[in-house]
Every structure is written in structure tokens, then in C-alpha cells.
């Protein structure tokens, strides 16, 4: 279970995934620490994907 804002697209799309999704989450957290704002603040799965892409 991952907070929506840090979820990799593969997880949202329910595709198979591996370790790189963890790096996606780390990158999202680091970007948020740097900007003091979430980088992809989606409200739903679809909205999250639209925010990413």
C-alpha cells in the first residue's frame, strides 16, 4: 500500500512491477522535500495518471 501521490504508474495501472517503482516513490518524496509541495498531487487514480502524464 502506497500513498497515491507516490505511486508509480505501473502500480496505478495494476501492471507487473519490480524495484524501480520504489525509486519512483523515493524520487517523488525527494522532489517534495525540495519544493515543499507534492510533485503529483492527484485525487483519484485517473487524476493521478493525468497529473503524471
TrEMBL record:
Per the record, the GO terms for biological process are:
G1/S transition of mitotic cell cycle; regulation of G2/M transition of mitotic cell cycle; regulation of gene expression; signal transduction
**Alphabetical list of Pfam families matching this protein:** Pkinase
Q: Which UniProt keywords apply?
A: ATP-binding, Kinase, Nucleotide-binding, Serine/threonine-protein kinase, Transferase
Question: Keyword Amino-acid biosynthesis on this protein?
Answer: no
Query: What protein name applies here?
Result: Protein kinase domain-containing protein
According to the entry, every stretch annotated as the Protein kinase domain falls at: 1-53
Residue stretches spanning the membrane: none
Any one GO molecular function term? ATP binding
**Which SUPFAM superfamilies does the record match to this protein?**
Protein kinase-like (PK-like) (SSF56112)
Gene Ontology cellular-component terms for this entry are: cyclin-dependent protein kinase holoenzyme complex; cytoplasm; nucleus
Q: Which PANTHER family match?
A: CELL DIVISION PROTEIN KINASE (PTHR24056), CYCLIN-DEPENDENT KINASE 4, ISOFORM A (PTHR24056:SF472)
Q: Which domain of life is it from?
A: Eukaryota
Amino acid at each position: 500500500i502506497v500513498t497515491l501521490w507516490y505511486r508509480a504508474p505501473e502500480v496505478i495501472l495494476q501492471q507487473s512491477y519490480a524495484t524501480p517503482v520504489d525509486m519512483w516513490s523515493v524520487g517523488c518524496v525527494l522532489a517534495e522535500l525540495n519544493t515543499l509541495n507534492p510533485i503529483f498531487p492527484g485525487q483519484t487514480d485517473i487524476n493521478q495518471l493525468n497529473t503524471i502524464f
